[in-house]
């Protein structure tokens, strides 16, 4: 369903990978490894000729067709207008979902934010709003860029449940949270210096030899949880 | 409160044609043989119509430029489009194409937009502050070119150019007002048609792209429409600054809404503002009217600063 053939630019070099139908993906890698850049290439914000979406060259799709196939949720909300409200933002995001805006809002327990302007939301609230927008957009494939970065434990759990649930079709998740990556169990890409260092099954990535190789002694494993070794 | 403003504005529109050096009696305006009738239908009415629709066009253009270029300072004037139109017009006056003044003004505006567009693609997307600088550089270049034209012109021509650069709402007969009327109403329809796209563009260009908007195409359509409108307006009234800059800002501070929900309000109140300024210009002028641009800046400037400062405090 998603194929990248030999993509290179100033940040990424020689990116090649192929996802089969209904495979989900997790992208890991240190800061500045090129994860977000890769995401922008996949969704077309960075123009390229190397991406194939559901059997078609992404460059040949028109704007509407592409929006139906792929969506990208950035790590931080970027919004120019200071008066657009939470509700208005979600109304704009409702494209291919059968859920109504109100249903998604109450699903995520966000009712009290409805009339606030986007700029006045906290970063965590903005993150939840963008998650809600991804459900309403309902593209075939959604890329989440660090969806749990600004969240408290309760909200992180909520996002985790949504991410593994049915409301989102196929997903690619960029994260630093290894416990989340392990629990979700999707295939893993590990990136370093703009290159894909590892691309294989979840189980294989979490073998001790690999963890040592990529994280050294900065990481501590306790059962199924992975923590920073402080 | 908002209704009160609408009613006051409509009243203003109704009484505006009756202001001026010569008083018009209401009972005579339907009497075809009277001077009042001629004065009212050939001079006063067209003037109010031109003032309203030019104001509306300028305000709406400002709103669109500010939204698309992501900068509160960008209007067709700050980006040099109006200066381009002025230069075109002056060129026509000096080189004897008097009957094609409007066409030349229009070409000047369009030429500027083409230059801006070519540069935006060079500047990678919409790097707004560089674009603004380009606009300012263009304006300086155009003023220099205008100076050269002055140098080449004779006395009557220079007077005509000066008069034109000050802006004027003098038109004779409704026919001459029609291009502005049509252009402004068309622009209103186009922007209303693209309301959804404008709103998505107001979130972020990336978001608009991801939601399936053809960003480049939408921008092009909107900016070209604005430029055509500005070209037409400037060729008829001369450059009238400030309306496009301040009215959208004032309305945003009052309504606290995003631009896509202020299209009609901006259109209406910018029109009213220019009619109001014109009233003052006519009332103050003794032998000849004060140039309209002087009034708009004189009134608008302090009020705008007052609003900005007031908002920062709140």
Protein model, in words:
The complex is a heterodimer of chains A (about 230) and B (about 325). Chain A is an alpha/beta fold and about 230 residues long. Chain A is built from nine helices and twelve strands. Chain A has helices at about 35-45, 65-70, 85-95, 100-105, 125-135, 155-165, 180-185, 200-205, 210-215; strands spanning about 1-5, 15-20, 25-30, 50-55, 55, 70-75, 140-145, 170-175, 185-190, 195-200, 220, 225-230. In chain A, helix 3 packs parallel to helix 5 (about 125-135). The termini of chain A are far apart. By secondary structure, chain B is an all-alpha fold. Chain B has a single domain (about 45-314), classed as ABC transporter involved in vitamin B12 uptake, BtuC (Orthogonal Bundle). Chain B contains 13 helices and no strands. In chain B, helix 4 runs antiparallel to helix 10. The interface of A and B includes residues 45, 66, 72, 83 and 92 of A.
| CATH architecture level-2 label of chain A | 3-Layer(aba) Sandwich
Task: Give me the strand/helix succession of chain A.
Answer: EEEHEEHEHHHEHEHEEHHEE
Domain unit count of chain B: 1
Mind telling me the CATH class of chain B? Mainly Alpha
What CATH calls the topology of chain B is ABC transporter involved in vitamin B12 uptake, BtuC
Query: What would the CATH topology of chain A be?
Result: Rossmann fold
Low-confidence stretches of chain B: none
Mean pLDDT over the full residue set of chain B: 85
What is the string of SSEs of chain B from the N terminus onward?
Answer: HHHHHHHHHHHHH
Strand residue content of chain A = 15-25%
- How many structural domains of chain A? 1
- Oligomeric state of the chains in view: heterodimer
Task: Please tally the β strands of chain A and state the result.
Answer: 12
What's the helical proportion of residues of chain A? Answer: 25-40%
Tally of DSSP helical segments of chain A: 9
The beta-strand count of chain B equals: 0
């Amino acid at each position: 369903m998603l194929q990248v053939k030999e993509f290179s630019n100033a940040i990424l070099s020689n990116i090649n990978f192929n996802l089969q139908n209904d495979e989900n993906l997790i992208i890991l890698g240190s800061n500045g490894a090129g994860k977000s850049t890769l995401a922008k290439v996949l969704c077309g914000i960075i123009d390229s000729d190397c991406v194939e979406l559901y059997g078609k060259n992404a460059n040949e799709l028109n704007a509407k067709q592409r929006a139906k196939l792929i969506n990208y949720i950035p790590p931080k909300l970027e919004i120019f207008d200071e008066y657009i409200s939470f509700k208005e933002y979600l109304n704009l995001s409702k494209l291919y979902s059968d859920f109504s805006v109100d249903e998604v809002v109450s699903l995520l327990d966000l009712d009290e934010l409805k009339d606030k302007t986007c700029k006045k939301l906290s970063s965590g609230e903005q993150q939840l709003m963008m998650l809600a927008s991804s459900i309403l957009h309902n593209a075939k494939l959604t890329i989440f860029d660090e969806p749990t970065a600004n969240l408290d434990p309760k909200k992180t759990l909520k996002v985790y449940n949504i991410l593994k649930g049915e409301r989102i079709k196929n997903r690619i998740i960029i994260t630093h949270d290894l416990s989340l990556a392990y629990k979700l169990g999707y295939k893993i890409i590990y990136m370093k210096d703009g290159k894909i260092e590892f691309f294989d099954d979840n189980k294989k990535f979490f073998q001790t030899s690999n963890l040592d190789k990529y994280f050294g002694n900065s990481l501590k494993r306790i059962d199924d949880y992975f923590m920073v070794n402080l | 409160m908002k209704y009160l403003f609408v009613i006051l504005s409509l009243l203003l529109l109704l009484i505006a044609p009756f202001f001026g050096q010569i008083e018009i009696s209401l009972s005579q305006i339907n009497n075809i043989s009277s001077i009042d009738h001629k004065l009212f239908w050939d001079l006063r009415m067209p003037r109010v119509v031109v003032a309203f629709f030019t104001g509306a066009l300028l305000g709406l253009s400002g709103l669109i430029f500010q939204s698309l270029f992501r900068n509160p300072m960008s209007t067709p004037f700050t980006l040099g489009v109006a200066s381009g139109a002025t230069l075109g017009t002056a060129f026509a006056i000096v080189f004897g194409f008097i009957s094609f003044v409007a066409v030349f003004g229009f070409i000047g505006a369009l030429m500027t937009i083409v230059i801006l567009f070519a540069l935006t693609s060079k500047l990678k997307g919409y790097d707004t502050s560089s674009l603004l600088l380009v606009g300012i550089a263009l304006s300086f270049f155009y003023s220099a070119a205008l100076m050269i034209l002055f140098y080449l012109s004779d006395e009557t021509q220079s007077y005509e150019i000066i008069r034109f650069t000050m802006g004027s709402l003098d038109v004779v007969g409704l026919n001459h007002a029609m291009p502005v009327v049509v252009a402004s109403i068309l622009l209103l329809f186009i922007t209303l048609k693209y309301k959804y796209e404008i709103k998505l563009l107001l979130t972020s260009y990336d978001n608009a792209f991801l939601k399936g908007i053809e960003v480049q195409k939408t921008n092009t359509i909107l900016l070209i429409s604005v430029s055509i409108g500005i070209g037409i307006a400037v060729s008829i009234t001369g450059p009238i600054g400030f309306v496009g800059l301040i009215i959208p800002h004032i309305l945003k501070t009052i309504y606290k809404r995003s631009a896509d929900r202020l299209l009609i309000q901006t259109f209406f109140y910018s029109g009213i503002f220019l009619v109001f300024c014109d009233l003052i210009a006519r009332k103050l002028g003794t032998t000849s009217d004060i140039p309209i641009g002087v009034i708009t800046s004189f009134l608008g400037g302090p009020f705008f600063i007052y609003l900005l400062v007031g908002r920062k405090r709140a």
